[in-house]
Amino acid sequence: MSKLHKYAFSDLYDMTSGISSTKEQAGHGAPFVSFSTVFNNYFLPDELTDLMDTSEREQETYSIKKGDILITRTSETVDELAMSCVALKDYPKATYSGFVKRLRPKTTGIAYDKYMGFFLRSKYFRKVINSNTIMTLRASFNEDIFSFLTLYLPDYEEQVKIGDMLYNLEKKIQINRKINDNLQQMAKTIYDYWFTQFGFPDEHGKPYLSSSGQMVWNETAKQKLPVGWSCSKMETAIENIRTGLNPRDNFKLGGGSIKYITVKNLRSDGVLDFSGCDTIDEAARQIVHRRSDVSVGDILFASIAPLGRCYLVQEAPQDWDINESVFSIRYNKNTVTPEYLYMHLQSEAFVKESTACSTGSIFKGIRINSLMDSKIITPPMQVIERFSKEVRPLFALQNKLNKETHSLTQLRDWLLPMLMNGQATISD
């Protein structure tokens, strides 16, 4: 490991604020980097899906070029402040959010972009940020903090070796996540076709509705449903709902290896993301588990908006448990399968209904009673079981990839400090 060199952050980068946009500008126009994109990614995605109607002058002023570091400037909590995201290429016409700062390199050959992507997300740098943060009603990262931050970097050649190796791990993680997202979309497509468009196979294996399947008006659902289908309260499909436990006076966070799952760890692609988890010890887990009782077939449900984030538990949890904002929903085997209930909880109809009855002044969410009172359309069990048989392989593959991603993430997070402090080196 080469000697570490001390640099003032402000000597290496110029910091610039993002664009102040209006609601009317959003959703059309040129590529745009949002707060969430920066927060959720080590590196900017190849394609930017968000759009903002911006002028040529704005695109020049708030441009994004290779080597730029985008960093979140505000957050509800200190722990989530100054999350970084690095651009590995130029993004023509793209601009970035006013809730984000841009750090543009002043020079070359000192800080390697891929190395910086991991260094700025490391526990070391996170501690530096936390200890220098201004906290009023919200945590804030500003020019004053930036001006006195220092970096300790190895030789550029060493940064290249470390950055490239970690980046290859990260690419595999991102590939797995992309596949998982595709698998989730495939399951959703099947669900919508069967239960929204009523294209499920009839007794002859043909699409029910387009094959002149009989439909009758259902007053509860306020729509026509296939003969034999019903619509009732969600309580008919759920055996029970349990939650985890918040620390308060029950236990302390940290000091153990058990991952403590919150709503932020439930992704919209059906993946349980262990990144950035707090931890608890085994004694604390026993306390939490007596309340959560998470088992195979249960569905983890994020009770705080945005609703619809779920995870289907396919293996008994050994090294994780949930906090109070995550519901553990157990299906009623007499009326539904776990796969059907899991997909329903992500459906457009359920999300719309549950969002409408959400409460809360700071974080809006749904209460257990409201969830149980919501509606669910229930086909005959033979139809539900055929659907589950159809999608179960997709979820099995998702689970396999999720475990692989978890292992790769653990390896990345273990290697990161080892490589950066010289405890491990990469041979030529």
Helix content: 25-40%
The beta-strand count equals: 23
Q: What's the domain count?
A: 2
End-to-end separation in angstroms reads 12 Å
Which parts are unreliable, with pLDDT below 50 for 5 consecutive residues or more?
A: none
Classified by CATH, the class of the largest domain is: Alpha Beta
CATH superfamily of the largest domain: DNA methylase specificity domains
Radius of gyration over C-alpha positions, nearest whole angstrom: 24 Å
CATH architecture of the largest domain: Alpha-Beta Complex
Tally of alpha and pi helices: 12
Q: Strand count, sense and closure of the main sheet? A: 4 strands, antiparallel
Which band does the percent of strand residues land in? 15-25%
Instruction: State the secondary-structure class.
Output: alpha+beta
* Overall pLDDT level: 89
Overall 3D geometry? globular
**In CATH terms, what is the fold-level topology of the largest domain?**
Adenine-n6-DNA-methyltransferase TaqI, Chain A, domain 2
- Strand line-up across the major sheet: 2-9-5-7
Polypeptide structure, described:
The chain is of the alpha+beta class. The protein is globular, with a radius of gyration of 24 Å. The longest helix is centred in the middle third of the chain and has 40 residues. The strands form 8 sheets. The protein has a 4-stranded antiparallel sheet with strand order 2-9-5-7. A 4-stranded antiparallel sheet has the order 16-22-19-20, covered by helices on one side. It has 2 domains: 150 residues, DNA methylase specificity domains (Adenine-n6-DNA-methyltransferase TaqI, Chain A, domain 2, Alpha-Beta Complex), CATH 3.90.220.20; 210 residues, DNA methylase specificity domains (Adenine-n6-DNA-methyltransferase TaqI, Chain A, domain 2). It contains 12 helices and 23 strands. The mean pLDDT is 89.
